[in-house]
Specification:
about 180 residues; alpha+beta; 2 domains; 4-stranded antiparallel sheet; 3-stranded antiparallel sheet; 3 helices; about 35% helix
Length: about 180
Amino acid sequence: MSTTPAGWEGILNEGETILWQGRPGHRLVIGVGQIAAMIFGLFFSGFALLWMILAAQAGGFFWMFGLIHFSVGLSIGVLPPFWSAWSRRHTWYTLTDRRAFIATDIPLMGRKLKDYPIDTQTPLTWDDGERGNVWFANEYRKTKNGSRKIPIGFERIPDARKVYDLCRKVKSSAE
C-alpha cells in the first residue's frame, strides 16, 4: 500500500514525505515601491486624461489616441498591488524532506508546479512578521540594464519561523 498522499502520485520521489503545507496570506499589501509606481501611473493617466479632454475640444476622434496612454497609466498605478494579492490567492506551498514546491492555478495562465531542492547549497533566509517569508532560491530576470535577482520562497505565511526551522532541518539532513 502506498504512503503517498492523494494527488501527489508521480510527483513525490520514493520515500519522500510531506513535512508542511500552507498558503500565503492574500490580503492587499502596498509597499513603498508600489506607492512610487502608483503615483507615477496615476500621474501618467491623469496627464493622458487632460490631453484627451483638450484634444476632444478640438473636435474629431484624435482624442482617442490618448486612451492607450490612459489605460497604461491606470494599469501601472492600480494593477500591481491587486495582482499580487490575487495571484497569492491562487498559490499553494508544500515542503517535503527533500524539496519545496510552489503550485499556482491562475485562471487563463494555467496550473504550474515548480520544485526547488533543499540541499547544502540552498540559501535559506527568513523574514519575520505577522506574515513572514522563507526564501530558499533565487531567480534572475532580465532587465533593460542586465538582470536582477528575485528571491523565491514561501511568501506571507503565518508560521514562517516554524517553516524556516523545518527547512534548516532538511538542509542539515542533506549533508
